[in-house]
């Protein structure tokens, strides 16, 4: 990191700390979301396997050449499989509830956060060759809130959306 002296007010420092906390919470939500997606993929694979086993068992039950004991065994397996399906659906519903809760928390974080962090404005002095002005915060575009990072310098500028 370059030698850079920044003169910032207590309010700006507090604003930066709030932004840092919000980013940390957002990262934690993103990690949980990634884990939830992995769990959802696993649940969907299990549900697909259930359908394959169910199709096999129902086809076997419809076979007229089965003995009475084979049919009883197949019915027992089918009943066990249906209980497994109910458990899978409960897990899937719990996953959906967790995801919905996390999305509400993310929206709350974004809506309550109109934080701005600026470098270069509050009398900061940098030894770098170019005078960089960076702003991190939330930009509202057509009603949707997104995180963005913008930087400006005499040679380049850009925006990174997260």
- Listing every helix as H and every strand as E from the N terminus to the C terminus, the arrangement reads EHHEEEEE
Strand content: 15-25%
| Span between termini | 23 Å
Oligomeric grouping of the chains: single chain
Overall pLDDT confidence? 68
**Spans with pLDDT under 50 lasting ≥5 residues?**
115-140, 144-162
State the total count of DSSP E strands: 6
Number of helices: 2
Looking at the structure, what is the overall shape? rod-shaped
**Strand arrangement in the largest pleated sheet:** 2-4-5-6
- Report the C-alpha radius of gyration, rounded: 28 Å
Category from helices, strands and their pairing: alpha+beta
- Report on the biggest sheet: 4 strands, antiparallel
Q: What is the helix content? A: 55-70%
Protein name: THO complex protein 7
